[in-house]
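Recap from last week: sequence in, structure out.
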Amino acid sequence: MTYLVASLLTTATVGMTFTGCIDNDEPYGIEQLRGAKAELLKSKKALIEADAQYKLALAEAEKVKAAAEAAYYDAMRAKTEAEIAEIRQRMDDAARIAEQQLQNLKVAYEQALLAYEKERLELSAQQQTVLDGFYTKYFTALNNYNEKYMAYVEAQKTLVDNALDPDGSDYDAKKDVENGVTEAQKDLDDAQADIEDLNEQLAEAKTWKPSELGEKLTAYQDQKEENTEKMKLINLTIKENTNESEEGKALVAARKALTDAYNEEIEIPAYTFNADGAITIPGLTEPEEVIGEGWSYTWNNQYGYHGYDDALNRLNNFKNNIRSYVLDDNDVEWTKAEINNLEAEKKENTADFDKMFAGWKMFADAYNLGAAPKYDAITGYDELKKAVDAYNAQVSATQAAKDAYYAAEKAAQEAWDAYNEKNNLDGDAWNDYYEAVNAANEAYSKAVEAANNELDKTLTALNNAVVKAQKEKNAADSKYMTAQGLADKYTDDADLKKAAEAAKKVAEDAAKALETAEKARDEQAPKAQAKAEKANDLAAATRDNAIADAEKARELALNDAPQIAGPLLDAANAADNKVNEARDAYNEAWTELSELVRVWDNETQSYAGVYGAVNNQVEEINKEYQYEEELYDGENRHYYTWTPSSDYGLYYQFQSEVNGSQWDAEVAIPECSVADVCAYPSNEIVYNIKRLSSKVYGGYYRDVNDDDILDIPSAQLIPLTKDDIDKMLAKYGVAEIEYPNSYNYYFGLFGRTLYYDNRIEVANTYITNKPVIEAAFEDVQTQIDNLVASYDEQDGKVEEARKAVSDAEEAVEELNADSWAEYYELQRQNNVADEMITAISEAAEATGVAETDQYTQETIDKAIENIEQSIKDKEESIPGLEEALARAKYILEQYEKGLISSAELAALGVEKAKLAMEAAKEELDAAKARLDAAIKSVEGAE
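Predicted structure tokens:
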């Protein structure tokens, strides 16, 4: 394959992926012929594949357009300008990309065609002839599949269009149903004609001779080329009729008129409500521009910004808004009875507000002090303060009793310590005696050990000196004997004689040294032994004296003990009596103190003391400021009673500290303050402010800076006013007529009060100015009616233009009817010729011949067999085609009776197109398999 063809194939297959809301089945293309080796085969595939990809690109472009249109209209219905702009951009990008891709594929197709024609010249006519039948069958199947694929895409596009504009598709739906009958009839007629022609060809084939078979194959190919040229001429005639005839010119003019009707710009009159200031109802006193200058639309673009849909919605919404604002909740005029009901509801709501506002203000006043809550602002403070003061008054007396008890306990401990110290004198005497005896024995053992160690040291040194001298004497004697032996042997050697004499002198000196060491040992060893024995005797005498002294001291102590311990025991018992008296006094004082902390009063059946005051405070606040709250879990509504949040943690911490101090001498009994035990610490105060703000002000309470939602504001909390709310609503662009609804839904009990005030004021104003207000309503409705009428008028023009286009199309179709009939007949004849070419080519491949001059009778027999199979296939398709025709007629009949909708027809069309596409794919797969086998056969023959 040349580089040119390879690059064209790459160009034709790059960037062909589109996405959309329509199915995106994998289209058949270049992958269908992958693996062929011959240059001719590859270049021809490039040509056909480029053509197929070009057709698929057209289909994909339709898919992109359908998807973009569907998304575009969805966005229009959402009336979101940002979405509209985004979808428009996506649609434009998709169209631009598809158009560019189509242009690229057209160029690729033309270049591939030129490359194929050049390379085809290098092959023999016989090689071309062998494979042409297989290629023809494959190309036909490939184009048929792509046509069915495009038809499937178009059917889905029709389904989308029908969903977007059901009314506008009625005419097209009827025409499609009628065309369905015509096409089904044509398919049946063509199949029957094909059977007849193939039977004629079969009869002739049975007379063929091997030598004629090549000419027959060429004749069928020539017939196709001749028919194809005729079809080109017919196409030119049809094109001329469509564009140049009177009927064609009329069609062009009708289509232009329809386009003009689609795109005719229709102005929308500007409209300002209460322009003359006649309306005096609060919230509607100022003129309000509803439709501005320069608004317009076209029939083809009704949903654009400041277009028809925008204007209609604006007018309808404005009408509904002012009616709901001016009229009562039932969209009827106000009556005195309704106003009286509002007054009663306002009174009830105001009572609820006053009650809950009192709770909000109580916590707000406590919070406004800053970091330390101002507890005297909280309900029940006086009772709690009184209980705290009573407790504190008892603390000093209880602490004194506690101190006296622990002082007595300390004195008693000291008395018993003194007694215990003297009560054990006997034991102490014996302990002292044993300690002295042990010390004496230990000193004796140490002295004896020291004397013995000194003796061992001396004896060891004397013995070591003797051993050393003996060793030196032995060494000297050995050397002397050796030297003397040499001198005796060599008597003439004077040096040896001198050496012997010197060695003798050393041996004699060593003998004297040994004698001296032995003498020292014998003299000094007895002296050392005597010294050690003397030291041992002295140590024994010292030990015995110490033990005797210990025995005397023991006897003296044992005689004095009874006279010392008795008085100390009496003093300790007296101290214990004082401890018991102090403990009783402390327990009595502690009981009084603990009852001031927490005690159950059987008479009142409630708690008293500090805890009772805390509990009473919480119960009183809960009872006064509770309210019913509704919760919705997504399925059911649940109701529960909310009460202000409290926390007994501080009290229990205080109680624990008090209890912990009772029997701990080092911990003083703590005093108390309201802040130490109050059930509303700072975090609970803040939480209750938030919850009550939600009830009283709807959760939109803000601080004086009008910036921060309560969480937590840094400034002082102050009550919200109507001016504060109106300022907030204006800041966020809420229309004044929407204020009452905002009051009612977003600003709690206070906002509901404002809502009732507004409704009562509006109702009274309406009753007074009813004629003017009703006239204003009619004026808005007139604007709506006029806008709808302008659209209806343009819709009529469009419908008339559509009818003109339809009539002109029918006239052109009638003018071209004969040409199309001739065209389709030539096309059918080509299909029969393709069947014959395929039959011969497959027969040649099956019998293993590569050249036309090699055909045999066996080849003819195989070709006849193939023709008979084609006839059989056609005959077997007849029942299905007859059924399809009957079904198409039935659908037309049902549609004409109004029993099938356009949407149902569109869905049926999608299903029909899908089945046809799947059948075409099966044919394509089979043709490809036969082509691959033929390629291998030709390559083997080479």
